[in-house]
Amino acid sequence: MLFFLDSACIAEIEEAKALGILDGVTTNPSLLAKENIPQAAIYDHYKKICAIVDDNVSAEVISTDVTGMLQEAHALAAIDAKIVVKIPMTKSGLQVIHKLQADGIRTNCTLVFSAGQAILAAKAGASYISPFIGRLDDLSTDGSQLIQQLSIIFQKNYFNTQILAASIRHPMHIIQCAQQGVDVITCPLSVIKKMIHHPLTDSGLQTFLADYRAAFPQQAL
Ligand code: E4P
Fold it and tell me: Does the predicted model carry a pTM greater than 0.85?
């Protein structure tokens, strides 16, 4: 399972990269807006992200019509070969995904909330589909059930599209995705940090060090 960071923050991306677990980055317009950069600097910001990761930087179009999305997608893809263009799951979005596949541009179909949407995006030629599991959970609908359903459907139908589980809110989302054989997860750095810590690891380490110091008081660690 690949790990993407759901962030447009350079410092966070560098921190995740240093952990040795980073396979890519997903951004969205809301995440970009948090970065306080002028609009004219957005493409340069994507360049900086691409310089940190080996591949897979999702950059989302802002247009919603076919012509506008296509124009933006080509401009985004021209920034760096690592860019994957994020296209919303709409009727126009499907047309754009299909055209971009023919042009050899990778796409990430975003805002997927049902198996029907995922099947259409895969058929249209999306490289990735992003089911938003946390936002489904927020509406008292089990997001992990959608992931389970998609894992079965995509395996049985040999779709050439990767499931990229998004809108991840806590470690159990990631563990469930791994159990279900999801191709990729994207999550905030805060969730990765929560996965690192366990109180028994902390107390166990304290005990090991205290025992060592008590037995060998003269030796520096
Ligand atoms: C995915 O690509 C999206 O950027 C993201 O996962 C949305 O997460 P949220 O529901 O926490 O905003």
Answer: yes
